[in-house]
Amino acid sequence: LWLSGMYFHGARFSNYEAWLSDPTHIGPSARVVWPIVGQEILNGDVGGGFRGIQITSGFFQIWRASGITSELQLYCTAIGALVFAALMLFAGWFHYHKAAPKLAWFQDVESMLNHHLAGLLGLGSLSWAGHQVHVSLPINQFLNAGVDPKEIPLPHEFILNRDLLAQLYPSFAEGATP
Asked: What is the CA radius of gyration of the chain?
């Protein structure tokens, strides 16, 4: 839920796209103080025609490193995180109220740990590694070369089109053979 809020506020109230186009001259800002009783004096010029409070949390750098290049992708990630949080809330309610496990299951620590850690660490690590190789690295290759973020292909195009990856990384043309 917290991450969903961070992605939403980054999409709605920040200058992420302007910062992404010129991160050395434009400061990251995701907060704007509204003009109530003179408090707007806290807003400063962070560059790119945006006035707000400069942030140093590192969210912009994390979003760039994970391959997010537009506010729409931030919105979609926020909605996905919110749906996932609701799904986990429902799963918790279901497991403890409708399909409550027996006491013997809680006493068998080995089966409980294996069940949860296999899904969380195993599949989570594989998914994140695949995302880094097939989405983040190619997008950051384009960003480091100075390509405008709006001209970079969408993330799913890197996953579905091996020839596009082979243009950036020639070893992808060979496939899985060493």
From this structure: 21
55 and 18 inside one domain: yes
* Pairwise CA distance, residues 97 & 154, whole Å: 42
Residues 139 and 69 in one domain: no
Q: Are 81 and 10 in contact (CB under 8 A)?
A: no
103-107, 125-129, 151-155, range with the lowest pLDDT: 103-107
Which of 130, 129, 126 shows the shortest CA–CA distance to 156? 130
Q: What percentage of the chain has pLDDT greater than the value 90?
A: 39
**Alpha-carbon span 11 to 32, nearest angstrom:** 13
Give the torsion sign (CA, 81, 85, 90, 94).
Answer: positive
List phi, psi (to 5°) of 45.
Answer: -80, 115
The reply to whether 94 and 135 lie within a common domain is no
Q: Is 95 found in the same domain as 83?
A: yes
* 14: Cβ contacts below 8 Å, ≥ 6 apart: 28, 29, 30, 60
Residue 44 sits in which domain range? 1-100
Q: Mean pLDDT over all residues of the chain?
A: 86
Count: domains in the chain: 2
Report for 114-118, 122-126, 161-165: range of highest mean pLDDT: 122-126
* Termini Cα distance of the chain: 43
Residue range 134-162: mean pLDDT, rounded: 90
